[in-house]
Amino acid sequence: MLKDRHLVPVRPELFAERSCPKCGAGSPTPVGVVFPGVHVLGNYQCASCSYRFLHDLPVGFAVDHDVAIGLDDGEMHDAHGAEPWVTAPLMAGFRAPSDEEVVIERRVLRPCKRVVVLNTLDFLYGHVLLKLWNAQHYLEAHPELGLVVIIPKSFEWMVPRGTAEVWTVDQRLGKAHGWYRSIDRQVNAFLTDFDEVYLGKGYAHPDKSKVDIEGYTGVQAFQLEHYATAQRHITFVLREDRLWYRTPLHKLLDRVAGKVGLKSVFRGFLLADQQRLAMSALHKVRKSCPGVEATVVGLGDARTLPHGVVDLRTRKMSVETELAWCTAYAKSQFVVGVHGSNMLLPTAFAAGCIEILPHDRYRNLAQDVTTRWTDVMQVFLYRFVDEFASPTAVARHAVSMFNDYAVFYRNNRINIY
User: Does the predicted model carry a pTM greater than 0.85?
Assistant: First the structure.
């Protein structure tokens, strides 16, 4: 089998670089592999003390936060200090596995006997997308292996060109944290068709500068050589569950209203105010840069907008809507939005962004930004402002990103060795 730190062997030989969590002996006997959903675990028995246990295989978040579970005593062994958001759903699922029949549609696009399986299942949108973006590495680095993608149905439209098989899981993301016997049964049955199987690592934070977004969506990203000559365009990403607040008082009002059951009363006011902030910023930008066009996207209701602003907000997503949003991002010099996974796709297409960053998300800085540039252009094109940034502050960045671009590009992309 291939020796590659980005591949985890499964078949015919299962990854066995584990130690018994009970007695510490190495080289346990591999019994099989378990696919309950988000996690993929090896089933082992200690050759020294006969302790039977499951251990996370090093894929997804388990690359750094793997845990072992005793099969007979149900004890969790966590040697690496995994956070509760990782371990709690895993253990809850293990202790109460679901017999719900989850449908998996298997589509064979190119028959292969040697494959790498990339499991993108997760209960969070951004996690699925980031895992999926690992696919490109395996398509490019291992053309001798067919790529098999296990993917939620809502992401099927983004399966990249060149994939050998697609195993589409018909399940809402919110239910993906469970332990599903039906998923394990079906996936293990599929695996018997192959002579050689590896798992893709599915890193939680792949190098996003290498993502060929056109290969995933069929929509070409904004080309930097057209930045100064293309129609000036901004896309505002306005989500309704994480807002751009005018002041700390507005944020406090939202939090308190939610706790006392009055969220719906105040949320309408705050949503309208978020739009006022965005359109005020646009108005200020247009004073210095006349003719700037704009699009607004997000899960929510369309509202009345100024002239030259297209409203693509909706409460019901479809492939057509996804592609319409991608097209808007792709004609934008930059996108504007609050920090979150909602920024991953927009920044994969646009040349840059202005992100409104809440203070409690500093530790997650740029995790949600698909940084396309690896040189100093990254500093110019990706701007981060305070969570209570005024429309004036956002507009100043936007005007600079339009008007100062040509000189910055010349100095840092042309007049260099």
Answer: yes
Helix and strand totals (H; E) in the chain: 12, 17
Q: What is the C-alpha separation between 280 and 391, in angstroms, rounded?
A: 6
Cα separation, 71 vs 55, whole angstroms: 10
Task: Please tell me the distance from the alpha carbon of residue 194 to that of residue 55, in angstroms, as a whole number.
Answer: 23
**How many angstroms separate the CA atoms of 62 and 55, rounded?**
10
| Strand order through the sheet with 114-119 | 7-11, 196-200, 114-119, 146-152, 165-169, 104-108
| CA separation for the pair 207, 392 (Å, rounded) | 33
How many CB atoms neighbour CB 37 within 10 A? Answer: 27
Say how many C-beta atoms besides its own lie within 10 A of residue 260's C-beta.
Answer: 8
Average model confidence (pLDDT) for the chain?
Answer: 95
Nearest to 2 by CA among 144, 184, 104: 144
Rounded to an integer, what distance in angstroms lies between the CA atom of residue 413 and that of residue 416?
6
The pLDDT value recorded for residue 265 is 81
> Distance (Å, rounded) from C-alpha 53 to C-alpha 68?
7
List alpha helices for 301-374, DSSP H. Answer: 319-330, 344-349
Pairing of strands 293-297, 233-237: parallel
User: Could you report the per-residue pLDDT of 167-193, keeping only the tens digit for each?
Assistant: 999 999 999 989 999 999 999 999 999
Query: Which pairs count as long-range contacts for 9-15, CB under 8 Å and 24+ apart, including other chains?
Result: 9/197, 9/198, 10/57, 10/117, 10/191, 10/197, 10/198, 10/199, 11/191, 11/194, 11/195, 11/196, 11/197, 12/195, 12/196, 14/42, 15/42, 15/57, 15/58
What SS3 state is found at 415? coil
What single-letter amino acid sits at 52? R
Give the pLDDT mean for 156-164: 97
For 204: left if phi > 0, alpha if psi spans -120 to 50, otherwise beta; the answer is alpha
Q: What are residue 19's phi and psi, to 5 degrees?
A: -120, 155
